[in-house]
Design a protein that fits this description.
Number of domains: 2
Radius of gyration: 29 Å
Number of strands: 37
Distance between the termini: 25 Å
Structural class: mainly beta
Strand content: over 45%
Helix content: 10-25%
């Protein structure tokens, strides 16, 4: 069951109140539309309710955009702006029959609305502007419109059938859902769950866990302190930092992660994967892209159907398990610290046109297959520093390079790391700017 259905109880409460009490909204005089447009008429329904810090706003509407602002006062102020074409004979009736109810409750304020069952061919534009105390929680559901909010200290539950959701900093947890729009949030101190049917998702720093899902858009996340779970049907994924484990998957986009601690699992149907620094055990899979790890400090398992693999193991690497790097078609480059205790087992299946290139200081044995037995495989094997966890390297048709990550190489590696982190930060910033400046969809009828 979709999350937005949980708002049905609020809808029933708000609409039932309409039948037993007069509307609490005050209606302003009707006038021409903005800019003196004689072709449009408008009406405003307003009200002020007394409340207390730490309570909650419940707002449910079957139509319209919602804008939430904050103030240093223990009250909730609202203004519902209505606008329609002036030409129709029933235009005024449409405005008059739009109903708004607002009342105080034990846990905060409830605001509900209902548009006329018939619009008589008229298009109705609705915008809710609600100002709440700074320390307040918010539950908002609109059947067709955008949700925009300033930062506040409280929990947020936001749902729209198709609009965008855009917000400032949240000192609390958040659950946001849209059937197809974009989600753009700044920092969230608690847990974040964000779901869209096909739009983009962007968030800054998340202080708790993060679950981000989109049917096909890109996902941008600055950092997450808790466990991160990110899914998209086909867009790119960018994560600046993950501190407690990360699982990401995309149907065909690329994946880029800055620094990741804990267990990392990344999967894409066809894009490339780049991890700048992986501190925990890492598992990476792509159907047809390249994999690049700048600084791996733990066990790595990586596979690609048609693409190369480059893995730099840092000089302080401590492997908690075996490593395996597999490519169907592509070269594999592995940089190993000189003092790393590891057992190497590398093989090119179709080695007639390819080579295993081994740094002489690694002292690995290279074995060539027997051509008379139609075995073209080339192997390199041996134990380094007495042996340890196994490093298995496999490619069907590609070269294998086993190189030393010495002080000079690591210096070069760190320069690449810094460049990639800066590049990732720029990408994240550009994606956020792009999402913030996108034109929202038109109001729903």
């Amino acid at each position: 069951m979709r999350h937005k259905i949980s708002y049905s109880a609020i809808c029933i409460l708000a609409l039932a109140a309409l039948a037993v009490m007069p509307a609490l909204a005050r209606e302003s005089g009707r006038h021409k539309g903005a800019g003196g447009d004689a072709n449009r008429i408008t009406a405003d329904k307003t009200g002020v309710l007394t409340t207390s810090e730490g309570l909650r706003l419940h707002l449910v509407t079957d139509i319209g955009n919602v804008k939430i602002k904050t103030q240093d006062a223990e009250s909730v102020n609202y203004r519902v702006h209505l606008e329609t074409e002036a030409g129709g004979s029933d235009a005024q009736r449409l405005l008059d029959e739009f109903q708004v109810v607002a009342r105080e409750t034990e846990d905060g304020v409830v605001i509900g609305s209902r548009s006329p069952e018939r619009h008589w061919g008229q298009r109705l534009s609705v915008t809710f502007e609600v100002t709440i105390p700074k320390n307040y929680s918010v539950d908002v559901a609109t059947a067709g419109g955008n949700i925009d909010f300033e930062g506040f200290n409280g929990r947020a539950i936001l749902a729209t059938d198709g609009g965008n959701i855009t917000g400032g900093n949240l000192d609390g947890a958040a659950r946001v859902t849209t059937d197809g729009g974009n989600i753009t949030l700044k920092d969230v101190t608690g847990d974040l769950v964000a779901t869209t049917g096909g739009g983009d998702i962007s968030a800054g720093t998340v202080g708790g866990s993060a679950v981000l899902r989109t049917g096909g858009g890109l996902v941008r996340l600055g950092s997450v302190a808790g466990i991160g779970r990110i899914e998209t049907g086909g867009g790119n994924i960018y994560v600046g930092r993950s501190s407690a484990g990360l699982g990401v998957s995309t149907g065909g986009g690329q994946i880029e992660v800055g620094e990741a601690a804990g267990i990392v699992r990344a999967q894409t149907g066809g894009g490339g994967i780049r991890i700048v620094r992986s501190i925990g055990p890492t598992r990476l899979d792509t159907g047809s892209g390249s994999i690049y790890l700048t600084q791996a400090e733990n066990a790595v398992r990586a596979s690609t159907g048609s693409g190369g693999i480059t893995a730099w193991f840092s000089r302080g690497a401590k492997l908690s398990g075996p490593c395996k790097l597999e490519a169907g078609e592509g070269d594999i480059f592995v940089y190993l610290p000189k003092m790393l205790a590891i057992t190497v087992d590398a093989e090119i299946e179709l080695g007639s046109d390819h080579r295993v290139i081994v740094d002489p200081s690694l002292h690995l044995k290279v074995i060539y297959g027997d051509r008379e037995e139609r075995n073209n495989a080339i192997r390199a094997e041996g134990s380094l520093n007495g042996g340890g966890e196994t490093l298995v390297v496999r490619t069907v048709s590609g070269n294998i390079h086993l190189l030393v990550n010495d002080a000079e190489s690591e210096k070069k590696q760190m320069e690449i790391l810094q460049q990639q982190m800066e590049q990732l930060r720029r990408q994240l910033g550009m994606q956020l700017l792009k999402l913030q400046t996108q034109t929202p969809p038109p109001d729903q009828q």
